[in-house]
Amino acid sequence: MIQKIIKWLPFSLIVFFFILSLVLINTGYGSFEQILFFPLDNGTGFNGEKRLVSRTKDREDRILQTVREVMLGPSELEYKSIVPVETKVQSIIYRENVLYLDFSKHFFYEIKGFSIPFQERMEYMEKNLLFNYSFIHKVIITINGQLPLSPYFRIEQDFNNENK
Known about the structure:
Layout: H1 2-26, E1 31-39, E2 46-54, H2 59-72, E3 89-95, E4 98-103, H3 118-132, E5 138-143
Parallel strand pairs: 4-5
Antiparallel strand pairs: 1-2, 3-4
């Protein structure tokens, strides 16, 4: 009896792990590769960097993971970050092919050691999201719930903060 079990054990384990892998793939777990774009150090263009992002069923969670990866910055030294370190994502909403992304006021501040205009940083964020998610047709970025660079845009600066 034991010899019959030992004879079928390798085959049974292979079948078990095959079924387990199918279940995990179909439930959305695992990770997938994305390309994130960052400006070059010399300011002459941009380049892409591959990142692995966890698979989740919720679109907003996947998008938030990508935004956080962009906020972490590049791993290559010749690329520069597009988001100041202190920046936080305050909210993210995806509705009818439009992504609404609200950042803290720190997103508006300059990045130490690298001069990249605010408008260009917004374009990089938008480029990263539109490239990696074909279902997003438009990205609306707000800062503290306000549309940046609109006539009524105001940021209360914390003058005790080092990011004046």
